[in-house]
Amino acid sequence: EHAAELLSHVRFETIPASELVSEIQPVARMMLDPQCHRLLVDAMNYHLLPYQQNTL
């Protein structure tokens, strides 16, 4: 219930992309909860689009 609120304080963009994929993405909550999923997608975009990091 409060997972997204709690996880919004985690700086996922500081986690290496390889760890996001291997450790964070497999967690069911990250894929099933829309707000948690958005946090994961935002972090992945940060790594995929380095030229936009100032705007993310």
From TrEMBL:
<protein>
    <submittedName>
        <fullName>Uncharacterized protein</fullName>
    </submittedName>
</protein>
